[in-house]
């Protein structure tokens, strides 16, 4: 079964069938669906080697060495995004991967840019793929109605509802489970969790699942606070410490060492501490998020979407999760090294 056989069946040229089989924007959606349905009914199976060769030929003709992808930076100060080590790793991994495949990753500062202006620039430069890194606050209203259907898009954060696209993100729940298990291996028994009450984040979910296999008296309720009220969280945090007496804490809050010091506890001496992200935290033990791999894989996913002409809102969203790695540090010594393990005070 060949494309010529399908072409005779549907009344198109072999070239038209080829375009329809790969969802080319040069062919209507209805024609693509009809051709693909007939191909399935006729038992057509593409030759993967021939398909790869054809894709390479198309790319080498239509995409110059410096074909571009867009990295949209919505931070009021674009440099602030790169001040976070994890996010800058996303950028470096994505840029290196893009260059490997003949693309240039271009960063666009979008905070003060109109959506219509960005659309003009992207189309003028022939850019079809967008990577959307994490952004602060709410998504700009002007970009909610941006013509995302013209682009293949991959997001690097769950935060926010726009645009609806595929994700490549950190495996937060799995990373929390990994950290919990490593903390248990070091002898800690009463492990607590402290972090913001933020539904898109999955660290707390992983922690709760990890401690389910413990005896009930060793399961500690997480300390959660609203991000905007961290300055008011010291007293509730100290009350939580007094009630649950943890001997170690897993946290995604960089300010926690200072809060523990205010509570009269020394990190690594009176209590163990591990971070869900050691790159942007003063805590030395915890999870390295492997951000460059997140950026690298985001480009691989984006290239696959571009090559498949898969643009706009996907009917089924996909999430690619990148696991972190454990890092030992002085903030979490062996429990026997603590001056006075807190669980012994109960």
Structure description:
The protein has 346 residues and is of the alpha/beta class. It has 3 domains: 3-62, lambda repressor-like DNA-binding domains (434 Repressor (Amino-terminal Domain), Orthogonal Bundle); 67-164 and 291-323, Response regulator (Rossmann fold, 3-Layer(aba) Sandwich), CATH 3.40.50.2300; 172-288 and 327-345, Response regulator (Rossmann fold). 40% of the residues lie in helices and 16% in strands. It is built from 13 helices and 12 strands. The strands form 3 sheets. Strands 2-1-3-4-5-11 form a 6-stranded parallel β-sheet, with helices on one face. The protein has a 4-stranded parallel β-sheet with strand order 7-6-8-9, with helices on both faces. Strands 10-12 form a two-stranded antiparallel ribbon. Helix 2 crosses helix 3 (29-41), helix 6 packs across helix 13 (291-307) and helix 9 (172-185) crosses helix 10. The protein starts with a helix and ends in a 19-residue tail after the last strand. The model has no long low-confidence stretch (mean pLDDT 88).
Quick recap:
The protein is α/β, with parallel strands linked by helices and 346 residues long.
């Amino acid at each position: 079964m060949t494309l010529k056989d399908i072409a005779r069946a549907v009344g198109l040229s072999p070239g038209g069938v080829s375009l329809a089989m790969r969802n080319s924007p040069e062919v209507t959606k209805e024609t693509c669906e009809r051709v693909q349905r007939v191909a399935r009914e006729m038992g057509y199976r593409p030759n993967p080697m021939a398909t790869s060769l054809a894709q390479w030929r198309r790319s080498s003709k239509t995409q110059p060495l410096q074909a571009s992808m867009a990295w949209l930076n919505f931070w009021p100060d674009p440099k602030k995004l790169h001040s976070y080590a994890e996010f800058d790793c996303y950028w470096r991994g994505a840029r290196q991967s893009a260059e490997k495949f003949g693309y240039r990753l271009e960063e666009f500062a979008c905070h003060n840019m109109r959506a219509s202006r960005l659309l003009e620039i992207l189309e003028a430069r022939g850019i079809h793929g967008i990577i959307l890194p994490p952004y602060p606050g709410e998504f700009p209203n002007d970009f909610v109605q941006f013509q995302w259907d013209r682009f293949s898009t991959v997001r690097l954060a769950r935060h926010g509802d726009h645009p609806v696209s595929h994700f490549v993100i950190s495996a937060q729940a799995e990373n929390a489970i990994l950290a919990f298990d490593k903390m248990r291996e070091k002898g800690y028994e009463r492990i607590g969790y402290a972090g913001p009450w933020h539904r898109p984040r999955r660290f707390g979910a992983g922690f709760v699942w990890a401690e389910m296999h413990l005896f009930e008296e060793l399961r500690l309720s997480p300390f959660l606070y609203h991000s905007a009220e961290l300055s008011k969280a010291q007293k509730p945090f100290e009350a939580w410490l007094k009630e649950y007496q943890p001997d170690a804490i897993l946290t995604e809050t960089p300010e926690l060492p200072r809060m523990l010091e205010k509570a009269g506890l020394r990190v690594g001496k009176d209590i163990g501490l591990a971070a869900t992200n050691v790159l942007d935290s003063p805590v030395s033990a915890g999870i390295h998020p492997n951000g460059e791999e997140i950026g690298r894989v985001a480009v691989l996913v984006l290239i696959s979407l571009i090559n498949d002409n898969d643009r706009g809102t996907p009917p089924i969203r996909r999430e690619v999760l990148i696991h972190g790695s454990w890092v030992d540090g002085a903030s979490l010594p062996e429990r026997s090294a603590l001056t006075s393990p807190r669980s012994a005070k109960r």
